[in-house]
User: Fold this.
Amino acid sequence: MSRFTVFVFLFTLIVTTSHAQSVRWEPSNGSLAKGQVTKIQLVFTNCQPEGTGTLPAVPGLELRPTKGRSQSFSTVNGRTTKTVSIGIDVQPSTDQHIVIPAFKINTDKGELTVASASFDIGDATVLGDQNRHLPLDQIATAKLTAPAAVWAGEVFPLAFTITADKRFIHALGNEIPDWDALPLNIEPWPKHQVTETIQSGELWVNIIYNTRAVVRTSGKVTLNPATQIVHIDSKRPVDASVATIAGSMTQRQQFLITSDQPTITVKTLPGGASKSFSGAVGQFKLESKIVPENAIVGEPITWTLTLSGTGNWPDIHLLPPRFAPKDFRASLPQAKRTPKSEASLYNVTLSERVVLVPTKFGPSTFDPIEWSYFDPVEDRYVTITTPATTIEVSPADAQKPKGKDW
Assistant:
C-alpha cells in the first residue's frame, strides 16, 4: 500500500469517525400540548454525556431531565453504532410556537452541538370513555379569587381553587401552587381543603387554598397566573373487540393547570388623617398597663404598652411615643413582636415594656397615648386613646416622718 493510499485511508477514517458522533433531539419537531407533560429524548450517538450538562432556558417551556438512561446497539454492514438516550420531560406553559435553540454539550468525545428543535403547541386533551378526547378544561380548571377593589394596605382574602372531575383526578403534583404573587404580599399558602359538589350527575372536587394578602400601592393590579401540577387518570385507547380486565384501561398523565388573571383595583387612602396616623390599615386595639399601681420611691414599676389586631403589620414598626412623668427614672424600652401563628403576617401583637423608678412620693399622672389607623371596613380613620393613669407613690421607709402612721 502506497503512502498516499495510507493517507487517504486514515483521512477517511478520521472524517467518518468524527461524523459518527452526534447528539440530537428525538423527535426534533412535531406538536406538544399546552400544560401536558410529554417525554422526548436527548440521543447521544457513539458518545455519552460527560459531567453535568445544562439544558437551554426556553421561555414558555419547562425541561426536566428524568432519572436513568437507556442504551442500545445496532450493527449495519459490520459497523456497530451505540446510542445513549436520556429522557427529558417537557411541559409547555404557552400556546405559542416553541423553539429549543441549538446548544453545546460536553461528551466523552469532546464538546458537540445539539441542533435546534421546534414544536407547535396545541390544546391538552384527556381521553375519556368511548375513546373521546376531552379538552383539559372540561376535566380540571384553576381559579384565583380576590376582591374586585381594596384599599392600599388593606388585608384581604385570596383563594386558589382547582375544580376537577373526580373520575379523572388522582393527586396533586405539588403541595402548593406555583405563583409569582408580586406586587402582592401574601401569607404562606396553608394546607388545602377539599369539598365535593355534584355537577350534571357527576361528582366534582374543589381543592381550595385560602390565604391573605396586601397591596401597598394604589392603582390597577392584574394578578399573575398561578399554576399547579395535577395527575390525571385517563382512559387508554383500546380496540372495542379486545376484552380487558378492570383497571387495565387507565393511564396516568401529568398536566399543568393554569389559573385566570383577575384584576384588583387598589384605592388610595382618603385625606383627613390625623397627625398620629403613620400608615396602619386594619382593626387595632391599644392598651396601657402599669404594675404595680401603688409604687414606692426607689422601687421599680413596669409600664407596658401593647398594640394588637389585624392589619398591615409588615409596615408597622413602632408604637406611638410616650413620656413618663419627670419624677421617674426610665430604662430603655424593650419591644416584643409576637405573631398569632408562625405563618401569620397580619395578626400580630407588639408590646413595649419600660421599667420606671419613682424618685419622689405623691401622686403621678401618666398622660393618655393616642394612635390612629385607617379602618377599611368602616372606610374611615379611627383614633384610639389610652386613658390617663394616676398612681400613688409612697415614700420609702427612710422618707417617712417619724411618729406618723403611713
Summary: Residues 125-267 form one domain. Residues 2-18, 240-248 have pLDDT under 50 and may be disordered. Helices lie at 3-20. The first strand starts at residue 22 and ends at 26.
